Amino acid sequence: MQNPSNTPVGVIGLGAMGKGMAESLRRAGYLVHVYDVRAEVANEFAASGGVACSSPAHVAQLCQTLISVVVNAEQTEHVLFGSSSGPRGTEAEAKGAAFSMKKGGVFVMCSTVNPAWSISLEKRLSDMGILYLDAPISGGAAKAKTGQITMMTAGSPKAYAVCEQALNAMSAKVYKLGDKAGLGSKVKVINQLLAGVHIAAAAEAMALGIREGVEPQSLYEVITHSAGNSWMFENRMPHVLECDYTPLSAVDIFVKDLGLVLDMARSSKFPLPLSSTAHQMFMQASSAGFAKEDDSAVIKIFPGIDLPKGKSEQKS
Q: Which of 4-13, 91-100, 142-151 has the highest mean pLDDT?
């Protein structure tokens, strides 16, 4: 394998996950080229080592491995193919990374998307001479920063040959789920089924406890040391206890992701009663004005409960 020292690698999207992944690559010795729609974020990263680029195409010109950590399929389309308006070859279209990537380069797609779309993207990029890795991620910002995320990947052996060492630099575990795109995204969608249902169930349990007069902190202590605990209850309910709905993962993320779950199941006529209910809960929270709040804000849909107040509210 190639020594990563000063090997160029590109990261597009420096959000909570992407920034940590870029930092992990930098620690491993890669020369990390970055792009984010917020130029100041890319410049801040580059100030500590790395290269801030002016567009996705600029990153693609300089790196054989391009890792995309944007929100959804729509943003990924824009990263790859630029503006959808205007004929191919216009300045707007040329900003797309796909038109600047070298033949044999690999595009690593880390977003949560419809698996059918990921399958089609592999074919579209292959027709342009670009390798593709279907590689959704999980683990949260803290694990991204320490290089401990989980990657659910699928793609050709040729794609792995180009980027596997970089994947290992960002991850605690890289799962290889198949030699064609789609299986990585399917596993991620199933993971999001569980995550969304668990958050909704955690919120429902905490809401019932509050309604029944149980002191919330005491309820949290008991449940986290009992068989009913889940990782999501333990991780998300402190946000409720602290009245801190700063979005680490927003309500609308699960409107989107549980929507993808239901879309995938609908295509094979597979019933998902729990996922459907959880999706409606997040939809209700979003339409009630909590769309951009932390996903634990789904608890706010329950009537007749007095949620814990923040420290500033307690003093007033």
A: 142-151
